[in-house]
Amino acid sequence: MLTKAIARVDKRTKELVNRLNSGEIAVINHEDLDEVAANSLVMRKPVMVINAAQSISGRYPNLGPEILEKAGIPILDHVGEAIFNRINEADILEIKGNEIYIREQNIGAGTILTNELIKKKLEETSENFQFELDKFIENTLEYAKKEKDMILGNLKIPEVETKFKERHTLVVVRGKNYKEDLHAIKSYIEEFNPILIGVDGGGDALMECGYIPDIIVGDMDSVSDECLKACKEIVVHAYTNGKAPGLERIEELGLKSVVFPAPGTSEDIAMLLAFENKTELIVAVGTHSSMVDFLEKGRKGMASTFLVRLKVGAKLIDAKGVNKLYGESVKFKHFVGLAVGAMIPIFIVGALSPTVQQLLKLFVIKLKFVFPMEFLGRYHIW
């Protein structure tokens, strides 16, 4: 294999992709390359990815390398930080086999991750996964004890101008399959006109789909200037001691914001902001909810997310993976049997009970996530 191209270098993959062009070489330092990062690289169409770290360390089954391999983008893996530091932005790199050359000088080598090697490494992760799971659970419980009072009762919620009462809220994180899920719930967004909260880069995800975020929540490390200037309000996530690294950027842009000191992730505080301001329903897209999601974010536990989801309870609908339901073949007779059996008693009791009427309303909303509008309209169900 012989490859010659311009190098784009950055330790932070999410920043690298903003200036990576098709046909260039992405030089990263990203241990356990995650799915979101891999998909962002695939979209930029590099000719190769050189990783200073191990793309699969063996701690858990991360899917990033497999995504790149399937897209036909070779990975020269684990070249080491010494080589990473020798490569400068816009250097012309020449890759011969697994060796790297700059101006005909060999600066080192790595390992080409073939399909077979990726599968072998992923199989080996199963041996360590139980150990990682044990550590993850222990950390989650430990931090849950420390954070429960703050999150469940004593957390001060900043005042915002947006009025949440009697409205739905859509919280968008630029996580797994966020684009497909946003497209799948487009009819819901158009009909209910929910308050749109973008969590950092989730704001750009909304703008990509043609929506202007009402609020951007986060530490401001992955949202564009254009999105920050277009949104109506900005909530900067700060540490519990009040320090807010993202505030400096907002001030440099000459924008107004409020600071929200809180433990946990920015998507957690976005949900709390909506919940404490009496939103009627919270719909989440692209959020992190599994152990692998959190390990990919570099977090050792999910205490705050666990506590927040306990608190928001029945008001939360997680739309992760809803796009896959739209692709399923559903037989009409199955749907009719399910609908008739479930709806008759609900309608009878609902006519008398305000509480059940509210539950019915939530059921109908959830129905929209399962079945596309054209399907419901075709059979005169909607």
TrEMBL record:
Per UniProt, the keywords (alphabetical) are: ATP-binding, Kinase, Membrane, Nucleotide-binding, Transferase, Transmembrane, Transmembrane helix
One GO term in the molecular function aspect is:
ATP binding
**All copies of domain Thiamin pyrophosphokinase catalytic, residue ranges:** 193-233
Task: Kindly state a single biological-process term from the GO annotations of this entry.
Answer: thiamine diphosphate biosynthetic process
Query: Which residue numbers delimit the SteA-like C-terminal domain?
Result: 320-368
What is the superkingdom listed in this entry's lineage? Bacteria
Query: Transmembrane segments in this chain: where?
Result: 335-356
InterPro entries cross-referenced by the UniProt entry: Put_SteA-like, SteA-like_C, TPK_catalytic, TPK_catalytic_sf
Per its record, how is this protein called by name? Putative membrane-anchored protein
Q: What is the lineage of its organism?
A: Bacteria, Bacillati, Bacillota, Clostridia, Peptostreptococcales
